[in-house]
């Protein structure tokens, strides 16, 4: 007990603060040391308290005072006002202080200010470049992060370290740029980096998110050492790529290797069961959390189970599961259930679930669109129109479908229903229309059940033809005929009509189409999809 208390005192900095309190006239060095301890402790706010005490005591500051203090502020997402004090004291030109300021502004979301400070610096070290790259990544500026990395390489004065490479890998992951990811992997090995657990795990996740789980497996097999995060990254990658049985095999292999699954691991393997329709396996794994490992399921795992049951069409079982949950379900759980109800045309249940969602978040566009589509499928046009009118009255706008196509590191963006007369898109639309006509021979018929009933059938098909995924595929086939693989990122769940269209196109044009939608990857090859039409 005494050892635990002593450890707690050191971790929280209580012991060091007490030592300072009883110290006779503590100097700058003493304060700096204890502020630095608190900057990495579980209570960084104490660093600010000590700094205030330091000021009241009239103890002078130096350039060693501010880096750990600014680090604490960065963790608390506050403290930009310290910049003026630093400038006033004349320590703003020190590289360590400048680095800490860039980090602070980056953590607080003020990237433009961080960039301005970076550009004004006369001296930059590896930490400077690494911090700004990380700031770009953490604020969703992934292309800017890669451009900064390229700029650093061109200057040739600083070599990246593992921390910076992890930021670069993260940027590539979010852009889903596979070719760039392959280049990063080659760069890592050519520049003498060891395949550490951190780098290997990041590469596994990167390749998975870029659409190539085969590359993830290759990296995994090459790693000399792995931890639980490594195994989890591979399981998750296999899960979202539709290789559910393989994900379970890896999960069992992980346990045999002596690794104990954590909450994230269970998330990944339950997702695998959900995407593969492995209901019995999922139920057993969920039960094992508490019975075998003594791990209390969190809301995320309960949500996975709702998705598992709902995706399989066991709507009543999913409803009962939610009602029995010991944790209050959040809006994500209810939305998962709503999606299942709509997918299986269980309108009675969908309406009840929607009422529960309205209590928490009544203004979400996706819920309204789901219910509207469900009414359209069964021909209840009056109710469908009512939902749409309600959305207009409450100024709820439907999020447009958006797809990104990356070709030779150039990003092409497409928006559903784009009526632009852009010279590039006009021939693409004509090509898509002619392609749809030719696919009818192979059995493809546009599914128009979710399109408003008060327009002509031909117009319904025309609207369906320009979903963002179709625009992206049409663009690639029209302008890049030689490419055998088309990779697309979509912000929404792929619709049934686009899914059928992709299967037919992959067969007709002998191409592989990889679509990363909101939930998973779909690999369309020779008229089939990796999801086996279960998504």
Which descriptors would you attach to this protein?
mainly alpha, 6-stranded mixed sheet, 535 residues, globular, 6% strand, 6 strands, single chain, 28 helices
Write up what this structure looks like.
Helix 7 (95-107) packs antiparallel against helix 8 (111-120), helix 18 (279-291) packs antiparallel against helix 19 (299-311) and helix 19 (299-311) runs parallel beside helix 21. Among the domains are: 1-123; 403-529, no CATH class. The protein has a six-stranded mixed sheet with strand order 2-1-3-4-5-6. Residues 452-461 have low confidence and may be disordered. It is mainly α. The longest helix has 15 residues, at 425-439. It has 28 helices and six strands. It is globular.
What composes the largest sheet?
A: 6 strands, mixed
Strand content: 5-15%
| Percent helix range | 55-70%
User: Which consecutive residue ranges, at least 5 long each, have pLDDT under 50?
Assistant: 452-461
Number of strands: 6
Assembly annotation: single chain
Shape: globular
CA gyration radius, whole angstroms: 27 Å
Mean pLDDT: 89
The class by helix and strand makeup works out as: mainly alpha
Distance between the termini: 52 Å
Number of helices: 28
Major sheet: order of its strands?
2-1-3-4-5-6
């Amino acid at each position: 007990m005494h050892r635990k208390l002593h450890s707690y005192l050191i971790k929280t900095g209580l012991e060091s603060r007490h030592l300072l309190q009883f110290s006779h006239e503590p100097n700058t060095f003493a304060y700096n040391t204890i502020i630095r301890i608190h900057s990495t402790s579980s209570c960084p706010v104490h660093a600010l308290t000590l700094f205030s005490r330091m000021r009241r005591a009239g103890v002078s500051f130096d350039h060693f005072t501010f880096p750990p203090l600014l680090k604490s502020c960065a963790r608390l997402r506050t403290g930009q006002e310290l910049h003026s004090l630093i400038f006033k004291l004349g320590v703003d030109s020190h590289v360590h202080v400048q680095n800490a300021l860039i980090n602070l502004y980056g953590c607080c979301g003020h990237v433009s200010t961080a960039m301005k400070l970076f550009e004004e610096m006369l001296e930059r070290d590896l930490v400077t470049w690494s911090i700004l790259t990380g700031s770009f990544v953490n604020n969703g500026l992934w292309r800017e992060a890669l451009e900064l990395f390229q700029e650093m390489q061109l200057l040739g004065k600083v070599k990246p370290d593992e921390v910076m490479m992890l930021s670069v890998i993260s940027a590539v992951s979010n852009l889903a740029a596979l070719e760039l990811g392959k280049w990063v992997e080659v760069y890592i090995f050519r520049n003498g980096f060891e395949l550490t657990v951190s780098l290997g795990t990041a590469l596994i996740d990167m390749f998975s998110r870029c659409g190539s789980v085969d590359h993830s497996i290759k990296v995994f097999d090459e790693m000399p050492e792995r931890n639980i995060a490594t195994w989890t990254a591979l399981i998750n990658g296999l899960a979202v790529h539709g290789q559910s049985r393989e994900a379970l095999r890896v999960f069992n292999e992980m346990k045999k290797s002596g690794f104990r699954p954590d909450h994230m691991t269970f998330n990944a393997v339950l997702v695998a069961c959900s995407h593969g329709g492995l209901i019995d396996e999922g139920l057993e794994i969920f039960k094992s959390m508490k019975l075998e490992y003594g791990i209390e399921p969190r809301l995320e795992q309960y949500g996975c189970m709702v998705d598992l049951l709902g995706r399989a069409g066991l709507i009543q079982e999913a409803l009962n599961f939610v009602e029995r949950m010991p944790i209050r379900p959040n809006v994500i759980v209810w939305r998962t259930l709503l999606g299942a109800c709509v997918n299986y045309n269980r309108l009675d249940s969908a309406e009840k679930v929607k009422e529960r969602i309205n209590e928490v978040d009544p203004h979400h566009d996706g819920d309204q669109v789901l219910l509207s589509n469900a009414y359209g499928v069964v021909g209840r046009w009056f109710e469908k129109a009512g939902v749409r009118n309600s959305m207009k009255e409450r100024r709820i706008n439907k999020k447009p479908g958006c797809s990104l196509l990356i070709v030779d590191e150039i990003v092409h963006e497409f928006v559903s229903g784009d009526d632009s007369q852009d010279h590039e898109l006009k021939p693409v639309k004509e090509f898509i229309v002619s392609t749809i006509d030719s696919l009818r021979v192979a059995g493809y018929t546009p599914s128009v059940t979710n399109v408003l009933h008060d327009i002509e059938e031909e117009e319904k098909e025309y609207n369906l033809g320009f979903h963002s995924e179709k625009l992206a595929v049409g663009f690639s086939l029209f302008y890049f005929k030689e490419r055998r693989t088309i990779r697309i990122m979509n912000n929404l769940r792929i619709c049934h009509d686009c899914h059928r269209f992709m299967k037919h196109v992959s067969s007709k044009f002998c191409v592989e189409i990889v679509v990363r939608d909101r939930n998973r990857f779909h690999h369309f090859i020779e008229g089939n999809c990796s999801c086996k039409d279960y998504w």
